[in-house]
Amino acid sequence: MQYIQHHIRTILGSYEGSLPLSHYLRAYFKKNPVLGSRDRKVLTEMAYVFYRCAKGLPEELNPGEKLPYALLLADSQLAPVRRLLPEPLQELYGLGFRHNAAVLAERGIPFDQDRLFPYPLPLSEHISKEEWLSSVLQRPLLFIRAVPHYLPEVKAVLEREEVPFEQLSLLCLALPNGTSVEKMIPAKMYRIQDASSQQTGTYFTMGNDDECWDCCCGAGGKSLLLKERAPHARLLVSDVRASILDNLAERFRLYGYTAPEQIRLSAADPAETGRLLAGRSFDCIIADVPCSGSGTWARTPEQLFFFDPASLSVYSDRQKAIAANAIRFLKPGGTFLYITCSVFHAENEEVVQHLLDNAPGVQLRRKTLINGSTKGADSMFIAVFSKNPAA
Predict the structure, then answer these.
(1) What does the DSSP assignment read for 27-89?
(2) Which among 163, 212, 230 has a CA at the least distance from the CA of 190?
(3) CATH number of the domain encompassing residue 204
(4) For the segment 90-127, what is each residue's pLDDT rounded down to a tens digit?
């Protein structure tokens, strides 16, 4: 246990939040190959638990003092974690967040949820700060989307392996966090995709003959949803990262689709997009824009821990630039979908209003925050615009 304590102190003392925690830990374990698989699992659990809970504990405590209380509050399911707790706390292990928060408060160590996010930044409609922060303190579920014709086989494997699951929609299955689904089910039969992200596909209304552009395609989750709904639609994907485009093409091939046309570009740059897309227009444009990711911080609690409120205006300005630039290529009568995984007003409703004020002929058809905070899922925002045929 002293060995584990040494490594977690090193991790917490050296990690600064500039990389995703998962990437940092992967590099750390590579530099320390003596750490076995169980050691890596325990250290990963401890690090995520710390960044999930530590800011809610009294500020006068140092990271080493906060860690055991964070482990207790997080109610870790890893048995070795219990042995890392001081003996007086071990009897509380497994009794749940609310119970243990009350016990710690009685012992003079109050947990204050508001300390997790002390900034006066307005959130989007249909979600409260309390429910959002409560969801960040909970481990999210693992969601998969079954490839349609493999759904019966996917469910049969889960049942045979005695993995509990809930079918939330036709193809969306919710599994316990940490399920090693990749060891049970061939990759071609499913894809990992959050339930709220899957739900955005219900807003896609493109037809089979449409020309579509996914202007910030990332890993291709929305492009694949589009392909399922309109298999014969002509799809262009773009991103600033060549490696992302390569990975997207490989994912398409994995699921039996022809890789879409792709262009490497910055959708925020009017000159570049104008040059590369000269003379083109689209029936449907998806703008799943880079954002703070605040709707996904239950999965990446380090982003909440290291959040800089000054970054929000940077994101918002970039989102306005991407949306206003991309919508120029929308055909009259076409559909534009603006999507974020943020809960902040500045990245959602504010950008919607910017488009309405600055994009001639554009009308808002609907907007909503898909609130996943009560079901162990991410929260996402989507706004659907149309372009006046006379524009």
Answers:
(1) HHHHH-TTS-HHHHHHHHHHHHHHHHHGGGS-TTS-HHHHHHHHHHHHT---HHHHHHS-HHH
(2) 163
(3) 3.40.50.150
(4) 787 777 888 889 999 998 999 999 999 999 999 999 99
Look at the chain and report how many structural domains it folds into: 3
Q: For residue 155, how many C-alpha atoms fall within 13 Å in the half-sphere facing its CB?
A: 11
Q: Are 179 and 163 spatial neighbours (Cβ–Cβ below 8 Å)? A: yes
Residue among 71, 97, 121 nearest 307 (CA): 121
Q: What domain range includes position 284?
A: 196-387
211 and 186 both lie in a single domain: no
Does residue 293 form part of some domain? yes
Based on the fold, state whether residues 238 and 174 are members of the same structural domain: no
Residues present in the chain in total: 391
* Interval 19-34: pLDDT, tens: 999 999 999 999 999 9
Alpha-carbon distance of 374 to 4, in angstroms, equals 34
